[in-house]
Amino acid sequence: MRKIYLSFPNSHALRDQLSWTHYRLIIKVENVEKRDFYIQECITSNWSTRQLERQINSFYYERLLSTQEENKDEVRNEVKSLEQSKAINEMIKDPYVLEFLDLKENKKFLEKDLERGLIDNLQEFLLELGKGFSFVGRQRRITAEGEHFYVDLVFYNYLLKCFVLIDLKLGKLTHRDIGQMDFYVRYYEEKIKGEDDNPTIGIILCSEKNETIVKYSILEESKQIFASKYMLYMPTEEELKREINKDREILEIEEMIQEDDE
């Protein structure tokens, strides 16, 4: 109770939509902004105490924040596009944490095993993806000039009002993966989405990101295609910091090399 009083000296700040167990978890969060974020997300997303605990332990706030910081300098001309771009940046995470699959990193498994695990744990995966996601289908077929292609997972986000395509990769991100997702997104833009739908989003989930390929590919300029790493275990705070800072360090080193060359 003392901790509750110190965390919420103004008792009117307490929200009656949350239970005592919710608040017992939330008062463990020291940062005020982070605490307010979890309170609001709990209410808007109707998180159970179990879901709240997982999101805190998987550093949901930090993963979202790191993605938003990477995209904060984006400037869009059209108001509608700007609003959707901001909403997308608030949705995409890097890395995604898929510990609920219980797949061990040293176990030999296939992409189909990863896909099946996500479908079998769809409720947890939807929670990890974020707000507004509805499942459309798996292995959705695309046919072009008699040749068939299959999108691993297709969702529709009713808040963003757009399709979200997800491709699963076990190894490092490649140019081929990016080109394939670009094709899927373009196809949905032309053949599938409705007149009132916003631009289709493509997310490539890979076990390892290749930052050089990210930088020198359409991912650098694209506002619709994203590549994120997934982790099969719950990271520690130090592991997460290393993961988030690693990408920035790589980019900083490349910029220093370019400056030296000039």
Tell me the radius of gyration.
20 Å
Distance between the termini: 61 Å
> Which structural class best describes the helix and strand composition?
alpha/beta
Give the overall shape: globular
Element-level helix/strand string: HHHHHHEHHEEEHEHEH
CATH architecture term of the largest domain: 3-Layer(aba) Sandwich
Give the low-pLDDT segments. 73-82, 250-254
Q: Assign the CATH topology of the largest domain.
A: Trna Endonuclease, Chain: A, domain 1
Q: Helix coverage percent of residues? A: 40-55%
What's the number of extended β-strand segments? 6
Label this structure with key terms.
single chain; 262 residues; alpha/beta; Trna Endonuclease, Chain: A, domain 1; globular
Question: Can you lay out the helices and strands and say which pair or pack?
Answer:
Elements: H1 2-7, H2 20-26, H3 32-45, H4 49-57, H5 60-70, H6 79-89, E1 96-97, H7 111-120, H8 122-129, E2 133-144, E3 147-157, E4 162-172, H9 175-192, E5 201-208, H10 211-215, E6 225-231, H11 237-261
Parallel strand pairs: 1-6, 4-5, 5-6
Antiparallel strand pairs: 2-3, 3-4
Describe the structure.
This protein is α/β, with parallel strands linked by helices. It folds into two domains: about 1-55, no CATH class; about 80-260, Trna Endonuclease, Chain: A, domain 1 (3-Layer(aba) Sandwich). The protein has eleven helices and six strands. It has helices at about 1-5, 20-25, 30-45, 50-55, 60-70, 80-90, 110-120, 120-130, 175-190, 210-215, 235-260; strands spanning about 95, 135-145, 145-155, 160-170, 200-210, 225-230. Strands 1-6-5-4-3-2 form a six-stranded mixed sheet. Strand 5, helix 10 and strand 6 form a beta-alpha-beta unit. Helix 7 crosses helix 8 (about 120-130). The radius of gyration is 20 Å and the shape is globular. Residues about 75-80 and about 250-255 have low confidence and may be disordered.
